[in-house]
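User: Can you help me understand a structure? I only have the sequence.
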Amino acid sequence: MSNKYKPHLQILPEDDANREFATGFLLESRVCERSINVLKPAGGWMKVVESIESCGLASTPERRLLLLIDFDDDVENRLQIVRSRIPENLRERVFILGTASEPEQLRKQLGKKLEDIGQQIAKECADGDGQFWIHPLVQHNQGELERLSREVKGFLIDA
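Assistant: Let's start by predicting it. Here is the structure, written out as tokens:
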């Protein structure tokens, strides 16, 4: 559990598959587990959007929020909808990442469990390597990933 008075990241996954990504991220030894909190799955991408304001960002200035959603082969439209629902005063602390289709497609293509993929992502983040993010199902995240990394790497990853 994170300390609300110190910089920390909450992850709001759309579903159990996205939660598995986040859980895998926590398995990397260089991730500061005390600076990250994975919330229970919201139960759909629209429910993730509806849950943004209840995540306590307005009252907790040290909190960042990562929304993990499936784009269901409609990246631009879904991204626009989600961004438009984030209150303007919170936008700089809310990040949106996800697979272009569904996490299960990525799992099949990579031949790995979702937790293993999450751990690989954390390892690459700690190492400064971004090979995972060139995969066609996640390459659309590049700009948002860079913004997220600038904001959280200092407190989320041990050097």
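Now, to help you interpret it: The two ends are 21 Å apart (CA to CA). Residues 79 and 118 are 21 Å apart (CA to CA). Let me know which part you'd like to focus on.
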